[in-house]
Amino acid sequence: MGDCGLPTLDAERNAEQDAERYTARIRRLVLGVGGESLKLNDPLELDRPTGGLKHTHPPRPRSTPTPMKFFVDTADLDEIREARDMGVLDGVTTNPSLMKTGGGADFHEHIYKICELVDGDVSAEVTATDYAGIMEEGRTLARIHKNVVVKVPLILDGIKALKTFSDENIRTNCTLCFSPTQALVAAKAGATYISPFIGRLDDVSTEGLELIDQIVTIYRNYGYETEVLAASIRHPMHVVHCAQMGADVATMPLGVIKKLIKHPLTDIGLERFLQDWKAYRESVAV
Ligand code: G3P
Question: Does the global pTM surpass 0.70?
């Protein structure tokens, strides 16, 4: 454990290995491989990996809790359709890199298509870096569809633009956030969403989830309305910890959304139910 109660990178690596061993042990116990088998009412003492992330400073509870939102982090229309058809999608986030891999030839038209697919917030990012340019691009994007949320980089001119957009009732997603002070300033400027990039912090040996914890605490201490949109999510445990910490939104690649529902005991259990059902039907067949 690090000083702040978060696991170190080594601990995280160990947790991953523990998780693999845990899954393997479940398979052995349930399938009765290698002399072990699970008896009815056996306590499942499997040294379950806990992760162990805790709030450093538990945030004040929201006066009115709102359900966690799931956004899909892609510009690919097929992926957006697939995520939407699961029935649990609340919105979409795009950025210039995602447009490069999944976007259509016309940016504005592509954003319109996404907005028509999903009944929820769709972040579309400006590429200007000066105040006037950000304002011009953002106002144009906001006119495309009522679902559009203008994504603005966390730079000085971006902060100025957030304030003006807020005065004009244009909703914003302040992106590329890597520190709690950046998030505090964005909230003061009236951002609708703040996007802390947790995976990219992990990439440089810094605990990305700690930033979520800090921002949630700060916002709740003062009642800022800005929603914490955890971005750069790479795996389901990011989602678990974001949910425990009270992030308002998790934006994830489609692959991570799909992994959220995977569990080997579900697959093994279903396989067994179907085999037993087949055997039962055969036994009662005339
Ligand atoms: O929405 C942007 C963010 O999610 C980027 O993720 O994986 O490129 O760091 P990633």
Answer: yes
Ligand 1 atom 9 nearest Cα: 232
Nearest CA among 216, 229, 221 for reference residue 53: 216
Structure tokens at 285: 């067949």
Residue 210 tokens read as 């700690």
Q: pLDDT tier at 140 (50, 70, 90 boundaries)? A: very high
Question: Which residue puts its alpha carbon closest to atom 7 of ligand 1?
Answer: 232
**Shortest-distance atom of ligand 1 to CA 123:** 1
Q: In this predicted model, what pLDDT tens digit does every residue of 98-139 receive, in sequence order?
A: 999 999 889 999 999 999 999 999 999 999 999 999 999 999
Atom 3, ligand 1: which residue's CA is nearest? 232
For a mutational test of ligand 1's pocket, the pick from 73, 101, 257, i.e. the residue with the most ligand atoms closer than 8 A to its C-beta, is: 73
Distance of alpha carbon 274 from alpha carbon 174, whole angstroms: 48
The question of whether 259 is a catalytic residue gets the answer no
Question: Which domains does the chain possess?
Answer: 1-52 (no CATH), 69-259 (3.20.20.70)
Report whether 63 contacts 42 (CB < 8 A).
no
- Residue 88 C-alpha to ligand 1 middle, in angstroms? 20
Per-residue H/E/C for 128-196: CCCHHHHHHHHHHHHHHCCCEEEEEECCHHHHHHHHHHHHCCCCEEEEEECCHHHHHHHHHCCCCEEEE
Question: pLDDT tens for residues 13-68?
Answer: 565 566 666 566 656 655 555 555 444 444 443 333 334 455 555 555 666 778 99
Evaluate whether 118 touches 80 at the Cβ level (below 8 Å).
yes
